Structures are given as structure tokens and as C-alpha cells.
Amino acid sequence: MSKVRILSLDGGGIRGIIPATILSYIEDKLKEKSGNSNASIAEYFDFIAGTSSGGILSLLYLCPDDNGKSKYSAREALDLFKERGDEIFKVSILEKIRNLNGIIDEKYPEKPLEKLLKTYLSETLLNQSLKPCLIPSYDIRNRKAFFFTSIEAKEEGRNYYMREVARATSAAPTYFEPTQIKSMDGNSHALIDGGIFANNPALCAYAEARKIDFKKMAGKSSKPNKPTAKDMIIVSIGSGDVKEPYYYKDFKDAGVFQWVKPLIDMMMSGNSETVDYQLRKIYETLEKKDQPDYHRIQPNLVNADNSIDNATSRNISGLHRDGLLTIAENKKVLSRIIDKLIENK
Hints:
Radius of gyration: 19 Å
Shape: globular
Strand content: 5-15%
Number of strands: 8
């Protein structure tokens, strides 16, 4: 029985360059080791989950071309962030003055992001996803977590344009305005960034995968039906970690405006750390041979800063270098992951 291969990608705004760099390397090595020059991320993972920028990457990997293959390589997905990421986080001086740099209105206009998503994802629907996926968002009207899944899109009519799913999961409060989207059957939802509760969606991916018949889905008798942890290889990739300290003396009398940035920072990193802890504990209950099948790669930010919206050419270059540094520091781990992905195809 071959294991279910799950990829989970954290949110992080422009810091999505880092996991995109790592996955570009993984895809190149898959081509080299498998002897398949057309190998893709979608081909070598059975399920993909992603939040915010991780959600955008997930949908790019899973977007089909006219022949039912991956429309974009991992390198092309990386190039989107590297070469066009500055278009998303661009704001005029006049706009900064008008919104008081994000104090009285969202910091960035949504149109450039929506235009970019439409260019890449076009009219593709979620039910056309090459593999099962899960993309978190949050429904502000009904006050509940909202999960886009390709299986529900196929089986229950909860189908949406991929570009609108990407827009919803990346609608970070204070940075972009919420989005209001409709499913193909006319249901409307007001949504914001899934990172407010699931910046690291790996545990959501684990829970969703538990109910999927991968044997039927993949058309392979070697895949398990409704897998448990021992049947899963989970590869969870973060978007960079640097712990900026916040001091009591600076925050003992802090008000709303002073707390906004630290709260977003701590909320994202705290969620990612909690999910990592929970999955490590789950895998510690397994037999020793299965325990190493949970992989968490959280890069360090050395050349770039922690901002999710610093899309200057210097910081974009720094993020790419941090991705390459993570690859260099984790070559043995990445090699084992790549071998497992091929072995369990």
C-alpha cells in the first residue's frame, strides 16, 4: 500500500517566494530522479492545502491546461511572485494619504491582485483541480471558518472560480478589503484571509484527507481509503520565521493602532507553531517506521524582513536567497522527501 502524499503551504504574503523557491527545487529534482521531464508538483502529491499566498501557490500547481496536465510549473509559479509580486503591493502616494497608510481604509487596492489572479487562473473552476485540495478562508457574515475544497465543488455544488478562491484566502484584514463571491449555484459569501485561524493549514489537510477515498480518487488500488496518520506523508512548508520581540515597556499602555501589526504577526506565527506541535504529537503515537513521515520545514529569514507586504526588489531578492539558503540547509531532508514522493506514486 502506497501512502497518501500531502503538501501544506503556510500563508505569508510576499514571503510566499520562499516556499515557491523550495517547491521549484523539489520539482526540478523530481524530474531528475524520476526520469520524467514533465514531472510536476500536482503529479507527485495526492492532496494540497494552502492558505493566503500558500493558497495561491496551491491553485497554480493544481490549475489544469487543455490537456489535463499542470498549466504552470513550480518555476513559473515562483516567477509570478518574484517578477509580479510588486504589482500586488503597490500603492500611490495619493492613496497612502487618502487611507492614512491603512488606518482608515485597506492599505492596498484589490484590483491589481484580482487582475493578476484572473490572468493566471482565468475561468478555471475549483472542481477542475488536478488533485483534491483545501483552501481556508473566513466567512465574516456568518462568523465561521470557510473551507474551499475541490471534492465539495465536484460533489455538492460548492463550486467557484479558482481566481475567486485565491482572492478570498488572501484577503488579509487591513491590507485588502474583504471579498464577496458567489458559488456557481448562487450562494454568496463575504470572506477574508484564512490566515486568521489557519495560517498553517496542515492539520486541516490531515482532517480533510481522513475522509477521502484516495483509492477511488486516484484510480489506484495501491492508495488507501480514508487514510489515518500512518498512511500519510505530510510535507508542511512555512513562509519564513523571525521572532521580532515585543517588550512590556512598549506595550503596557498600547492602544488599538499599536497592537494591530504585532497581533497579526503573533497570530500567524502562533497558529503555525501550534499546528506543528499537534502534528508532531500525532506522529509520535505511530510506530517508529512511520514517525518520520511528517516533515515541517520552516525557513529562517536572514536576508529579508518579516513583512508580508515588503515587495521592494531588494526584499524580493532577499526572500529568494532565503529560500535557496533553506534548500542548502535541508538538502538531506529534501532528498528523503523527494525519494518518498517517487516511491509512493
